[in-house]
Structures are given as C-alpha cells and as structure tokens.
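Lecture notes, unit on protein representations.

Consider one protein chain, 424 amino acids long.
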Amino acid sequence: MNLTRIFVPALLAATAGQALAQPFVGPGDIVIGWSRGSATPTPQQLEDTIQLFTQAGVQKPDSWNQYAFVQSVEWDNTGGIRHNPNGHLFGMDFGAAGTGCRIYRYESATGWAAQPFFNDAASIAPGFGTYINLTITRAAGLSVSPNNQRIAIAGYDSGQVIVFDYDTGTGAITGARQTLTLGGVLTTLDSSGTAWLDDDTVVAFSSSGQLWTINATTMAETAQIDVGAGLGQSEFTSLVYNPTIAPYLYCQYSNFASATQTTTNKLYVVDPRVSPWVVVKEVDLSTSANTMREIGLSTAGDLYFTTVGNATIIATLQKLANVTNPAGLVDNSSVVVTTSPIPASFSGMDVAAGIPPATSTCYANCDGSTSVPFLNVNDFVCFNNLFAAGDTRANCDASTNPPVLNVNDFICFNNAFAAGCSAP
C-alpha cells in the first residue's frame, strides 16, 4: 500500500480544501517537450508531445498530449516552492512568424488537463497583437518568478524580453510588457533563455554572449557581463538559477554550423553575487553532446539538458554531474541519460524540484518559509515530496527500524504541525 497516495492527499484536502496533483509526477522527475517540424503530426506524435522521465532516464507512461509543437516546458513555483510538481506545468509552442508563440497551462488539480494560456486560437487578435505596443514574435526561454507572480519569455523575432503578471489561482495573465530598447536587447532569430534572480529581476542571455538583467516592472535593461560566446548559426541559449541549490547562474550557449556540420556547446558558471559578475568556470561540451537546447538543475546539484535532433541525429537527454562544485567540472564529461523515443527536432525540459533545503528551525516548517503564517498547506506538500523521494528528512520520528519511512512519520509530522511554530 502506498501511504503517500492515501494519507497525505486526504490530510491536505482536509487542511486546504483543494485537489492535489496527480501522483505520477514526483520530485526529481524530468519533463521534456519533444517538438517536431511537421505541420500535420500523426495522432501518435500528438500523444507524445510532452513526456516524463525519471532522473535515471526511465520513461514514465504518462504524457501531456493535447497540443503539438510544445518545446519550452516549466513547472511554476506554487506555494513559493521552485519547480513544484504539485503546481502547474507551462508549455510553450515556439510559434509562427505571423501569429507569435502560444503558451498553455497544464492543470495539476484536474489531472493535467491543458488550457490555452496565451495566444489562444480563439483570441480576438491572436499573437502579441492582443496587447498594445507588444511586438508579435515567436519565443523561447519561458521562466517563472520565485513568488509565482510573473512569467518571462524571450522573443525570437523581436529580440525583446517580455514579462507578464500571472495569477496562479485564476490562471490569468495581465500587464504584458517588453524591454525598452528599439530592436531588442537579444540577438534576433536566435532562441534565448531567461531566468529570475529574484521576484523583480529577470536575467536574459543573448547569443552574442551578453547577460542582461531587466527590471520586471519598468523593463529597464542593465548589461551585466559578456561571457564571450561567439556569433554563429542556429544559436541557442538557456539559463537556470536556483539559489536553494547553488549560488551560481548556469548559462548555456550552443550553435550548429551547417556549412561544417560542427557543434559548439559551452556552459558558463557565473557568480551573480559579486559586482561586476564573474565567470567562475567555463566548460566545453562540444564533443560529448550534440547541440544543446535547454538546461535544468536537480536538487542533487546535477545539470540536465536536452539536445537538438534532426532526420539523422537523435535528440537526447544528458547530464553533467555535480555542477554545484564548478572547480571540479571537466570538459566533455556530459553523459547521455536517454534518447528521444520518438522523432524530435527541438526540445525543452525542466526538473521537478519541490524539496527545499532543511533550513528551518521548526521541523513542521518544511518549506522553510519566513512569511506568516509559517505553517500552511505547502508544508504538507513539502513533507509528502520528501517522503515520496525517500529523503531521510522525512524520518520525523527518527526511527531506525526498516522501513525507516512509514505511516508513523506522517503522524509525527501532523503532531509537529499541530504544535505550531513560534519562529520560522
């Protein structure tokens, strides 16, 4: 009997009066959007648009199948828990030049049913034309602010970074705005990445090598550091930043030169805590991986990424281990975790986290929140994730008899929660 599927959902429903995520998504699982270049995908291609894998590369039987061409995928930060598998999943269709990108939200509470989130085909004016003073653009690099109230994307045609305000409860986005520089701050006709330094600051990585920070309210841009990436062909950048795992900003740059059929892959580990920012490590992955596409960071400190595929090259999921120790990183040391089980060209990915570090002085404050009330439904979600992952932090009663994790730990945690916390 799987106690986590019976005890905790009932407990949470009683506490919060809300439905939970479907149990097939667990902490550490990797979601991948395998996108195809076909305008008329077959039913099987539609079924396999987004797939779920364990960190060992084992494909789970579940997939998101309502929309085709979804590449960039990202879990939101429900409850302030970054990349929370008990929240919602965003998927973004790169889009067409005339209508711009499309974004969908997959609802955890309804069995991951998808809803058009932006650029719905039923819109009065599809594309960014729906909003005043925004440039219609294809896009990549979707990211969500830590407080789960804003979303950023990077315009492929426009070169602009675009920010929306996001209401996680209603699923509405409002207040769309873009960066101020005429012509954009990013290299156009390249896929660029974004990430969030904090709730108010977006980072964007141009394929020219320039890292920018953008004020998410005023959209003013500040050039931070040029990491030295070169202009080339078919360029891609991606960013990931999660200070609960590591203090570094991980910046991926790739290009594919069709004339010579050669790939350049670089990973720049940047320290944003100092001024000016510095590159603490540059890693070359040009021979251990085909052209890199998007990166994600696991709570274990491993960097995962997808690669580009075509008619002769199979897209892959790869891993670079222990990136939290940049000094130990070695060139061309990434390894293939799994290959795409279906034909795919471009791809995006994210790693479900939802297990914050044990920084709280109060055991029941599992998510380490510092906002009142310290204890809420998110702590039950956090504890359930720890238990499901087999994390020893879920051994609330400190038992040593196998199985170490059992129903007594849920009772123990419930008692700790009922006792309350006087401090975070």
